[in-house]
Amino acid sequence: MSQFACKEFSALDKELKDDLLECYAEAQVEIEDILNKIEDEGFSFEKLDDLFRSLHSMKGNCSVCFLDPLVELLHKLEEIVDGMRGRYITYDYQLGALTNVILDEVGSLLQQLYKSHGADRNILDLMQVNLDELYAMENDSVRPDKAAQIIKSIADFKEGTLGNQKNNATLLITVEYTEAQQEDIDRFKALSSKLNRLLGYSPERGERILKLCLLINEELKYPEDPVQLSAAAYMHDMGMALVLKFEEGNPNRERAISSHPMVGAQLLHKHEGWDHAVSIVMAHEEKFDGNGFPEGLVGSLIPTGAFVVSISAMFIDIVWGKSGDEYKKSAMRAIQKVNLESGKRFPPHLIEAFNRAARKLLVAKSQ
C-alpha cells in the first residue's frame, strides 16, 4: 500500500493533535446533521451556508496542523459546495451522501496519520481525482450519477484492500431449525407478511429485517441464538395489530403503540420453546440510555437481540420506506441516522457491528 506522511503534523504535541481530532469529529457531526435536515426539512441556502462554514472550519483546522494533502481534498469538496451556493451546481441527495463518505474517509486518513504517521495514498488519490472530475463537469445534470459512481468506487476500493477479496463472506446465513421450529417459523413468517401488508409496508419487510439481524449477529460473533433471533425478527411488531383498530388521534391508539411490545411478547409466548425470543420482542423498543419503553431498561439489562432487531428495523424502514417496492437511494442517510443513535438508542459496539454488516449489503447491492 502506497503511503503519504505529514511530518510536521506528526511532530506536533499530542494534546494539539487530540484537539484536532475532536474538532474534526464535532464538525463532521454538524455536517451530517445539516445534510439530514436538508433531506428531512427540504433544501435551503441558509442550510447550505451552514454546511460551507463547517467545511471551511474543518479545512482551516487541518491547514493549521500541516495536513496539506487532506486540505487539498477538503478544498475541492468546499469548492463543490460553494458551487451550490453560486447556483451553478444543483444540490442533490447523492452529492450530500458523497460529502459524508468523503469526510468519513478523510477522518480515517487522519486517524492513520495520528496513530502510525502514514496514511493510504491510493484512496486519497482516488478521491481527489474523482472530485476534480465532478467539479469540472460542464453538464450539471450528470453530477448526481457521477457522485453515486464515486461512492461505489470508494466502497469497491475498500473491499479490495481488505485482504484483496471481493466480500467472500456470503450474505445468506443459513439457520438450522428442528422440524417443530420450522413449522413455527413458517407460521411467524406468514403472520409477519400479513401484518406488514396491513400496516402499509412491503410483505417482504420481515425477510429484510431478518437478513440484516443475522448479518449483525454474525459480526457480533453470535451473542444470540440465530433460531431465537429469527422468531423475534418476524414477531417483534405483532402487537401493532391492535393499533389498526384505532384511528389517528384516538388516545387508545397511543396506548396500543406503547404496549405493543408486551402484546407481541404475549402472542409469541403462546408457542412453546421461544422464551428468549419473547424477551427480545418484549425489549425491542427499549433504548440503551433508558429512554425506551415499556420498562425503561438501561444498557446491559436489555437483551442484545432486542438492539439487533431494533437497529435492523430502523435501517430497513428508512431505506425501503413504506411500500418497499423499490430500493431507495438513501442507504447512506439511513446509516448516518443509525450512527447518530450511538450511546443513545443503541450501544456503540453494536453500531460498529451494524456498520460492518451494512457495508456488506451496500457492496452486494452495487455488484
Q: Layout of SSEs?
A:
Elements lengths: L2 E2 L2 H4 L3 H28 L3 H20 L3 H18 L7 H24 L2 E2 H16 L6 H19 L17 H21 L5 H15 L6 H10 L15 H19 L5 H9 L20 H17 L10 H9 L8 H19 L1
Antiparallel strand pairs: 1-2
Helix pairs in contact: 2-3, 2-5, 3-4, 4-5, 4-6, 5-7, 6-7, 7-15, 8-10, 9-10, 9-13, 9-15, 10-12, 11-12, 12-13, 13-14, 14-15
Structure commentary:
This protein is 68% helix and 1% strand. By secondary structure, the protein is mainly α. The protein has a two-stranded antiparallel ribbon. Helix 3 runs antiparallel to helix 4. The chain is elongated, with a radius of gyration of 23 Å. Residues 162-169 and 324-329 have low confidence and may be disordered.
State the main characteristics:
Four Helix Bundle (Hemerythrin (Met), subunit A), elongated, mainly alpha, two-stranded antiparallel sheet, 2 strands
